[in-house]
Design goal:
By secondary structure, the protein is an alpha+beta fold. The chain has helices at residues 45-48, 85-101, 109-124, 130-143, 175-179, 193-204, 217-235, and strands at 2-14, 20-26, 30-36, 54-62, 67-77, 162-166, 171-174, 188-190.
Length: 248
Amino acid sequence: MYTDTEGIIFKQIKTVNGRRMILLFSKKYGKISAGTGISEKGRGKSALAMRPFTYGKYELYKNRDSYNINGAEVIRSYYRIGEDVEKYMAASYVMEFTEQLLSENDPMPELFVLLTDFFEVIEARKKRYETLVLAYQLKALKACGHMPCVDSCVLCGAKDGLVGFHVKEGGLICEKCASALNHNDALIYDVNFGIVDILRYFLRNPLQRLEKLALDEKVEERLSRILKSYIEYHLDIRNLKSEGFVLF
């Protein structure tokens, strides 16, 4: 069956006879593996669509067990991401994180749009990419149904007096519940109203409105530790290859 889909390439692996295996985040089919003979080093329009940080349209041949990319064209190239090393590594980290979030053949159109929005915003941003990455991660968790509870105490439902984040329980906890817990638990973090407000602000606003927002570095570092612990505990996403080159 011949079909097409909008997509973003996660990575490429060279195989035999000049062919490649492509890991593609497609809007229509989700994360898929597809073979192709198209090289990103070529000069045709299909080659341009095989390059990193490109939002393209891909012509597929789909049979029962596999996909093949027969042709491609660029919808939008975010080539300026590659002109700044820190920006490139931040975007690479987000791509790797997104890949790990997705299951094969499970369409996630909301997350797909979020990723293209991220590319738009980070390409235009001049510095301090960490805040944008944290906002993306939180929004990506929500899009995939793994959002921590940030509106009320995850244990009793109280909306006031939120003083901690309980990684194992999956969200904020109030002062009363926190006082009854083991404070030696490494997966319970103290938070203040500032971090609570930041989490909610990230969720209420599109990435485009966060383009110029940069958090205080100490707040950024603490929020990063909380999200990293939550993601490792609940999703078992850890030790990303690009993690050592970026951010926190």
